[in-house]
Amino acid sequence: MVFSPEGSLLVAARAGRSLANGWFEGSRTSVIDVRTGDVVSEFGQFFSEAAAFADGLLLVAGQRREGAGLTEPREIRVVDPNTGSVVARQTVGATCFQDMAVSDDQSLLALSGCDGALWVYATADLLSPIAAEPLSVTSTKDGLNVLSLHWVGSSQLLAGGADGRIRSLRPDLTEQWSFDTGVPVTVMVVRNGLVYFPAAESRGSGEYGLLGVPHDEDAVLDLVAGLATRSLTEAECDRYLGAPCP
To answer: Is residue 118 part of a domain?
Structure first.
């Protein structure tokens, strides 16, 4: 499920009839007016796995032919949320999608795949009505297994991983910092300079809570510095920083 930026529309996907291979057919995706509960538009025969809004249009990533399993190429569809009609579509080489997010200036689309890959695309290429050329990748990174994505502005991408880490990435997907939450990060919420997420009280304790940490790099460094009990030795600076201690 995903809300439109102004919060007036809710996009919800539901699976259809279960098939013998574990997949579904007859799936439908509905765009709902949250004030009235009315279905504004609906489209089917497409297994939606992730969605986001850009320039008033709905971006939906998923399986274009239902029931084909992981071997079927996925695609991103650009849909008019008021009518359910497809404006444009692009095939993307993924086995399936985990999550997608659009930057605040709506110029970049981040998309994570079930194979552990993370991609960043220019939304302008995707929104073009005629997809004559394959969708060009701005940045790509493998091995992260990202379950949840959230842009902070247009220069910072927060990626919550199955390994329990939240990573702060630049648009080129270079890492700024990471934080170990202790549990797979399936959801993140950003409010007032903090990113909130479910976290284990201690690893293996079975107790969980809601934790918020600053997402700004300088604020994170200040937080870490406040918790430090000693300075690094010259040997540690050389090993971990690759430079003399500041």
So the answer is: yes
Give the contacts of 144 (CB within 8 A, at least 6 positions apart). 112, 116, 117, 118, 159, 161, 167
| Domain-located, residue 46 | yes
Q: What range defines the domain where residue 38 resides?
A: 2-143
Give the model confidence (pLDDT) of 50-74 as tens digits.
Answer: 888 888 888 888 776 555 555 566 7
Residue 78 lies in a domain: yes
- Verdict on whether the full-model pTM lies above 0.85: no
User: Residues 172-179: what's their mean pLDDT?
Assistant: 88
The predicted model gives 173-186 an average pLDDT of: 86
Cα angle: 159, vertex 100, 200; to 5 degrees:
35
Domain assignment present for 52: yes
Domain count, the chain: 1
Q: pLDDT-derived band of residue 125, with 50, 70 and 90 as boundaries?
A: confident
Q: Which strands, in side-by-side order, build the sheet including 9-14?
A: 2-3, 9-14, 28-33, 39-44
CATH at residue 32: 2.130.10.10
User: CA geometry: angle at 79 spanning 76 and 84, to 5°?
Assistant: 130
Residues 183, 165 contacting (CB under 8 angstroms): no
Residue in 190, 196, 194, 195 with CA at minimum distance from that of residue 209: 196
